[in-house]
Design brief:
Elements: E1 3-7, H1 12-23, E2 27-32, H2 35-44, E3 53-57, H3 82-85, E4 91-94, H4 106-128, E5 134-138, E6 153-154, H5 164-169, H6 171-174, H7 199-214, E7 219-224, E8 227-229, H8 244-253, E9 269-272, H9 273-285, E10 293-295, E11 299-300, H10 303-313, E12 335-336, H11 339-345, H12 352-365
Parallel strand pairs: 1-2, 1-4, 2-3, 4-5, 5-7, 6-12, 7-10, 8-9
Antiparallel strand pairs: 9-11
Helix pairs in contact: 1-9, 4-7, 8-10, 8-12, 10-12
């Protein structure tokens, strides 16, 4: 049993991480942006003893000292100086990072929250949490991609060359880049701006730079998934709040492309959210994971194979699915080497069929 700080505790991936941690009987403190979100988490896990699961309100993770100061006075248990009230954390799992399809100011709404949020978290741990020995950050496969090069096989040694100035001035580079995915919105309203963000590249670089320059007592692990599909485990106020990857599953299930062409797939790699969650736990507890980056990839897919998987696992949805789906997977689609995740973390990735079957069932229960 260990004590863990999980940032962004109400997120799609974080909810699955939390479920795993609680099943291990770990003590968990999650950060959320509001008391309401924190209460929703406690409500979902009513059987868990209060001391085993707590939340702390951090309204703006980018502000200086965000982890050090009281955010909501009067909440004795839910909002305080995190590393003073909880001075015995063993590990921090940092999943909090912004993603929004609607933004006007790249710096204020996307880049600063990602980069400053990561650095402020590391700074607070370094200054106030000497018991923390490992920090695991949720990064992105996009941090490996180089849209200006014809990469044949991706691995963890690679870095996206995007710069801060480029991400600020070129809207396309604030999100994922041109050759691998093209931002846009289909005629049916399915957003195909592919999360994660180029801001994640800058945030992950800042994290590794912090560790190299400050020499903290903790070591660092980064996890780098591509598109993340899977069942919903967090509070979902509406289907419009689905994670971006699952939005394309929703669109297909609801018949958005029944009589029209599928939009471009964009990113041809995927992973199941439950495997990403397990990777966080394994990265937290595996000594050999320290100082490493891990690409988490379940395999290749396209919007056509996604359509086929839905048809196979949920034949009752056939009247909603595209009549003439075309596979846009390039003959020379990029490959990947994610052996490190299997060897060091022991991850056995779920099949695409099983992932999509569970995803669709979950979305149906949510009202899709």
């Amino acid at each position: 049993m260990v004590k863990i700080l999980l940032t962004g505790g109400n997120g799609f991936i974080a909810a699955h991480i939390l479920k795993l941690l609680l099943s291990r009987n770990d003590d968990v403190v999650v950060t959320v942006r509001s008391e309401q979100l924190g209460e929703k988490i406690l409500e979902k896990h009513q059987s868990i003893a209060p001391k085993k699961l707590q939340y702390v309100v951090v309204e703006d993770i980018t502000s200086a000292g965000a982890m050090d100061k009281r955010e909501t006075p009067g909440l004795a248990d839910s909002s305080s100086k995190i590393f003073v009230s909880h001075h015995d954390f063993d590990c921090v799992l940092h999943t909090a990072s912004p993603f929004t399809q609607k933004w006007a100011d790249a710096v204020k709404e996307i880049l600063d929250p990602a980069v400053k949020g990561t650095v402020e978290t590391l700074r607070s741990i370094h200054a106030h949490a000497p018991t923390v020995k490992r920090v695991v950050i949720l990064s992105s496969f996009v941090t490996l991609m180089n849209s200006s090069a014809e990469t044949q096989v991706y691995d963890e040694s690679m870095w996206n060359p995007v710069t801060w100035d480029a991400a600020v001035t070129d809207r396309r580079l604030t999100y994922t880049g041109s050759k691998v995915s093209r931002p846009g919105t289909s005629s049916k309203g399915l957003k195909i701006e592919h999360s994660p963000l180029h801001s994640q590249t800058l945030a992950e670089r800042a994290a590794w730079d912090f560790v190299r320059s400050k020499h903290p007592d903790f070591d660092l692990v980064s996890l780098n998934p591509p598109l993340v599909f899977g069942p919903v485990a967090h509070h979902l106020p509406s289907l419009d709040k689905l994670n971006t990857s699952n939005q394309r599953v929703r669109a297909l299930v609801q018949g958005a492309f029944r009589d029209s062409a599928l939009p471009p797939t964009g990113m041809f790699l995927w992973v199941d959210v439950r495997d990403v969650a397990l990777a966080h736990v394994r990265a937290m507890e595996t000594p050999a994971a320290g100082g490493e980056r891990f690409m988490l990839v379940g395999g290749h897919f396209s919007n056509k194979t996604l359509t086929d998987a839905i048809a196979e696992t949920h034949p009752e949805l056939a009247p909603k699915l595209p009549l003439h789906a075309v596979d846009d997977t390039p003959a020379s689609v990029y490959q990947y080497d994610s052996a490190k995740a299997a060897v060091i973390l022991g991850i056995e990735f779920r099949s695409f069929r099983d992932c999509i079957e569970d995803t669709v069932t979950s979305l149906q229960k949510a009202g899709a």
